Amino acid sequence: MKLHLAAATVLLTFSSAAFAASNQFERTLSVSAQPDLYLSTGSGNVTIHAGDGSQIHIVGRVHAGWAAFNDIQQRIDRIIANPPITQNASEVHVGEATSHSLFDNITIDYDVAVPTDTALNLHTGSGDIVVENVGRFLTASSGSGNVSAHGIHGPADLGSGSGDLVLEDTGTGDIKAKTGSGNIKISGLNGSLATRSGSGDTQVSGRLTGPANLSSGSGNIKLQLPSDARFNLEASTGSGDIHVDYPGAPKQSDTSRHHLTAAINGGGQPLEVRTGSGDVEIKSH
Fold it and tell me: Which listed residue, 77, 120, 127, 258, has the most CB atoms within 10 A of its CB?
């Protein structure tokens, strides 16, 4: 009896592994050193990392959703046989652009290797997005999931309906980040800035070279800038404290407990910081 059970277990394990291995597709596309990638999936995780300098290599792993219908394997087979990938010169589109019924209750996780100077346009309806050490430009959004980008070298626009946003930028360019519910953490800022969190903390460090607006419905906001930064500050909190650690900056008092304005180092770019409930802290490094 134990022998039959062990054999059945081995057979089941082998069958599951073979099924999982077969439910994926791969494509390698030749592109220029600065291609544009547009990727969208209704449900699934997206991982982007550095690869060959003249190719985009795409791996898609296809899974049945929790409410899959009887024809699910047939539709998975159709997707694998004809993946949703199109190319026009160095512009590559990945995702369900047509025949949306084909993708109902199907999740596709993408792992994509790209040249480091790729412009990235990424979206998932539900899932996480991770970008590692690539991107001359990035726009990335998730309906429900975290967005994390490390080592991009240009402008960035991150968004999530519900999830944390993390960005480490090594280049220059304007940064935008918005989440309905989640924390925002940005380092390497070298441009203008706009952040919004419905509920969550915001932490930013870098150099401000344009206007900035940081807001949170409920959460703390911390901003770290160079000691020689010049900006016109307007900070407010519905319930919390305001701390500005710059020489000559006014101190919080009973009359200005929840609102503070100041021209730091003689003034410069406008910097607006607002939170409905939370502390505001601005300091030099």
Answer: 120
